[in-house]
Amino acid sequence: MALRRTLSTALVLRAVANRLGGILHGCLRHHAFYDEHTAWHATHSTAEPAAA
């Protein structure tokens, strides 16, 4: 169980690090300041589905 948790934690940390690296790369490439709303925009709709 501990090995599974360690592996999943490592994968999550790697994904976050890759995301942060991508954000930094984009800022440097486009000479732009960091903007949290642009960097971490939601890719899914947060609207509630209509009741049937």
Could you write a compact summary of the structure shown?
This protein is mostly helical. It has helices at 2-29, 36-39.
Could you describe the 3D structure shown?
The protein has 52 residues and is an all-alpha fold. It has two helices and no strands. 0% of the residues are buried.
Secondary structure elements and their pairing?
Layout: H1 2-29, H2 36-39
Features:
mainly alpha; 2 helices; elongated
> What is the mean pLDDT?
82
Name the structural class: mainly alpha
> Stretches where pLDDT falls below 50 for ≥5 residues?
none
Percentage beta strand: under 5%
What is the terminal-to-terminal distance? 42 Å
Helix content: 55-70%
Morphology: elongated
Looking at the chains present, what oligomeric state does this protein adopt? single chain
Instruction: Please report the total strand number as a whole number.
Output: 0
What is the number of helices? 2
Q: Please write the string of helix (H) and strand (E) elements.
A: HH
Q: Rg from C-alpha positions? A: 17 Å
Main sheet overview: none
